[in-house]
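Quiz preparation item.
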């Protein structure tokens, strides 16, 4: 029932829950990564939501319309460019700092 609302082949419910989940987990993720001296803001986590989702889909071999677009070697360059753009926006202002102690 919730997955019947779509934008093209993509379900709005799945996309909204992914972004809501990252939004709620961002403070915890930021704290976890800060222990490794990598600082990523909540806004950056939101940019990284789709690339992280792609990594999980590849790792667990989950087949979705977006994954088919990305893995098609002969087309859908726009989907690949969007993914790379989101990855760039998510990582461009992340900071690493070496511990002084």
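Solution:
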């Amino acid at each position: 029932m919730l997955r019947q609302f779509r934008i093209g082949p993509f379900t709005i419910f799945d996309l909204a829950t992914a972004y809501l989940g990252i939004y709620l987990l961002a403070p915890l993720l930021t704290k976890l990564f800060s222990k490794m001296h990598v600082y990523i803001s909540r806004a950056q986590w939101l940019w990284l939501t789709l690339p992280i989702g792609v990594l999980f889909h590849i790792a667990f071999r989950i087949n979705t319309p977006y994954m088919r677009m990305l893995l098609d070697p002969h087309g859908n360059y726009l989907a690949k460019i969007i993914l790379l753009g989101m990855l760039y926006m998510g990582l461009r202002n992340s900071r690493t700092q070496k511990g002084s102690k």
